[in-house]
Structure formats: C-alpha cells, structure tokens
Amino acid sequence: MARRAAAEALTALLAQPILRGQLVDGGLAQLFDEVEMALLPVLARMEKAGVRIDLEALSAMSEEFGATLADLETRIYAFVGHEFNIGSPRQLETVLFDQLELPSTKRTRTSRSTDASVLEELRDKHEVVGLILEHRQVSKLKSTYVDALPTLVDDLARLHTTYQQAVAATGRLSSTDPNLQNIPIRTALGRRIRRAFVAPAGKLLLGADYSQQELRILAHVSQDPGLKADFAAHADIHLAAAARVLGLAPDAVGPKERSVAKMINYGIAYGLSDFGLAQRLNIPREEAHVFIEDYYAAYPGIRRYTTEMKILARDQGFVTTLLGRRRYLPELAARNQALRSSGERMAINMPIQGTAADGMKIAMVRIDEALRERGLRSQMLLQVHDELIFETDEDELAQLAGMVRDIMRSALPLDVPLEVDLKVGSNWEQMDRYLPTDDDGGWHRVPKSAGDVAREEAEEEVAAELVT
After folding, report:
1. What domains can you pick out in the chain, each with its CATH number?
2. 267 near 280, Cβ under 8 Å?
3. Contact 219, 437 (CB under 8 A)
4. Sheet of 203-211: strands edge to edge?
C-alpha cells in the first residue's frame, strides 16, 4: 500500500510539467490557477463545515411517508385485485400489460418497459397508473433521503458532502457522499426534504440565487439586441418572449403563452429540438417547430449563435466558455445521427452552462476571501449550481447579504446585468425574500406570497428538467 501511494505521488510529480505545458499551450493556465486551484481550499472549508440536519423532522417525515406508502399500496391492490411487489419491474409488467391489458409502448431487450416515461404515457389509461407513479416517488424520497440522511450525519447532526471539480464536462461542481446537489426540487413533496436542512439555534440560513443566469449569458454570447434590451429593462423575460414571438401586447400574454415561452427560452439554451419541445409541452411536433422558428425570427441573434456554434464545434472539435474552458465533442464526428445531434446540443449549451459554472466558482473564491478579510463568523455551506447557502448570525446578516450580492453580480463581465435573489430563514425550504431598503441602505425580510413560491418552483422545475 505504501509503495503504491509513493508511486502515485511520484507519477503525479513527473507528469506536472507536461500537464502544465498543455495548460499554458491551451490558454487554460489562468483558469486553472485563479479559479480551480483557488477554489480547492474554499471547498475544503465548506466540506468541513457541513450543514445541520433536523433529525426529528426527518423522523416525522419517515413516519408520514411510510403511512402514505401503506395507503397507496392498499388502493393499488384494490384496483388490481391482489397484492404484488410494486417495486418489481417484472411483476409490474405482468399486472399492467397482461392483467390490465394496457398498451405496451416501449421495450427493453428482455421485457416491456415500465419506466417513468411509459407510465406517464399510460397515466390517462387507468387510474392505478397514477397511484403507482406516486408510490414510486414517495418510495424513492423515503429511501434515498428521508431514511438515508440521518445515517450520514456526524455527532453534531451535521452532514458533510464531497465536492468534485473535474467530473462534469461543463465545469459544474458535482457532489457525492451524499449528493446534495440532487436534493429534489421538482415536486412539492420532494422540496419538503429541504425543510430538514436547518440553521442551528440562534443562527439563520441565507440563500443567494442567480436569477436566470444562463439566459443572461445567452443574451451576452448571442448579442441579440431584443434579449439584451429585455434584461436591461428588467422585464419579465418569459412574458417579453411570449409577446415578441406571438406578436401580442405584454398585457395580452396569458399564463399559457408565458409557460410556452419559458420552455422555449430555457430549451434554446440547452439545444432543445422541436421533438423535445413537443414532448415537454404535449403539443404536435409541427406546432413546436413553428414556435421555435417564430422564436428565432424574434431573436435573430440567438439563431446566429446556435448556427455559428455548431459550425465552430465541427471545425475545431471543441467549444469554450468565456474564460476558455474547453469541451471536446467527438460526438459530432459520429455516424449515428442521434449522437451527432447530441453533440450539437452540447456545442450550443456548453459555452452557456460552463460560463455560468466558471462565474459561480469565481464568486465563491471572492466571497470566501471577503469572509476571512472581514473576520466574519458566517460560513458558506452549500453550492447547488446557481445557488449558495450560508449559515450566519443575525448581527452579520445584512453585511453578509450585501457583500454576497455585490460579489456574485460582478463575477462575470457581461453586457447584461447579473441579478441575485436573496432569501433568509431557519431552514432551506421555508425562506423569506431578503430585500434592500431603498432609503437607508438596510435590509428587510418579506414573506413570499403563494404566487412568488409558485413562480420560483415552476422556474426551477423547467431548468431542472432540461439539465437532466
């Protein structure tokens, strides 16, 4: 063991000048030194600090989820007429397709699929399918989070994750043991897990969340005048897109039109095709194609950007972020059309998502430096893609909020303003908006309305769906 460890250390030492030369030749040395290496001690401090977990809340949730599962099982068995293992794909296949005679729409090599996409297609065919989907969701939440997290905390009930800098090809951080970046956000039930992430007695959690960060980066890299103007005017970006695409006055845009525009706004940034848009909006593919073409007509700079990135990626074999981070795309040379299309989507999205990741890392390094320079007790605990979570005291809250907001806003030199939403509370799920007071430079808490919560949840769900 000792000889192997020594050999690995020696190998790394001998490889260093070779790898350093490659960084310099690729124009990546500054990114490596000033972002990635500077971030290492920041992540180490975050991992050491951990985050407090409310074990009593998870215990109560476990009992509640257990009762919910028992009730769902009783109802499912009543529909089917007998008990079976709901978690067994083989038994579920027999029940759905042989006993209930529902149509099989997808096959694996050995059986008829019962994955989530198949069950969603069957939801309207039989009432039991919705119950099975709900059972699957609750069971997953209970086993993966509610029952698992208490086994991972330390003696102070704090949970410590490990951040990985070199896993995601876009430069995004990833998290393991446990994966705290995967804490559910798509459903109300899933979001309740965040209620167990708490501040210790006498302290508060401060959340700082980039507002539509990737769309703002899209406006910068595409230089589309319409999108830049909408952000400069602090417009509702999805309402503005609906008005431009559909040729409506802003006050004539309804919730349905705004929802379509929101999916297209985010979808374009992720290279979403008309087929993908049709699936997500549950509309004919032809209608989705018209929506996308009308969007490109309204935002010609974005069409130009997507076209140019595909050509550039094919010519040089890679794309870069604004800071020079590269992603190589061998998929573009594949014979398989699906692989090539996947490569094109990466070519469009990586400069956007990767630049967002670079900007967040820069902000984290600067915030950590400022915390130590000012001698603040506040700690940075979690990073979840476009959000940072801090633990702080009441007497430092306003100072921390202003400092974090200013640093995050200035992390990237964009042609459109970066905006940061701040929130504060005793747990990660139930947080008030934290806003500056215009007249005296102070801050105040504003409870979120039901509309605020609904809009935030819808925004997170769309972005999360496209990321995955």
Report:
1. 27-54+164-224+299-468 (3.30.70.370), 55-150 (1.20.1060.10)
2. yes
3. no
4. 379-384, 387-393, 203-211, 419-425, 432-436, 443-446
Report the distance separating Cα 5 and Cα 132, nearest Å.
Answer: 49
Q: How far apart are CA 97 and CA 389, in angstroms?
A: 46
CA 377 from chain centre, in angstroms, equals 28
Find where tokens 């059986």 sit.
111
Arithmetic mean of pLDDT, 78-92: 95
341 closest CA partner among 270, 391, 281, 291: 270
Residues 6+ apart with CB under 8 A from 261: 238, 239, 241, 242, 245, 253, 295
Confidence (pLDDT) at 23: 95
Give the model confidence (pLDDT) of 315-367 as tens digits.
999 999 999 999 999 999 999 999 999 999 999 999 999 999 999 999 999 99
Structure tokens given for 179 = 């994966």
Provide the token pair at 443.
């801050």
- pLDDT, one tens digit per residue, over 23-79 is 999 999 999 999 999 999 999 999 999 999 999 999 999 999 999 999 999 999 999
On whether the CB atoms of residues 112 and 97 are closer than 8 A, the answer is yes
DSSP 3-state of 327: strand
Among the ranges 239-248, 259-268, 426-435, which has the highest mean pLDDT value? 426-435
Q: Please give the pLDDT value at position 468.
A: 46
Please state, in angstroms and rounded to a whole number, the distance separating the CA atoms of residues 169 and 319.
Answer: 11
pLDDT over 60 (residue 447):
yes
Alpha carbon distance 207, 425 (integer Å): 9
Strand-strand pairing, 387-393 and 379-384: antiparallel
282 torsion bin: left (phi>0), alpha (psi -120 to 50), beta (else): left
Quote the CA–CA distance of 95 and 75 in Å, as a whole number.
Answer: 15
The pLDDT score that the predictor gives to residue 466 is 54
Nearest CA to 181 out of 167, 197, 165, 163 is that of 163
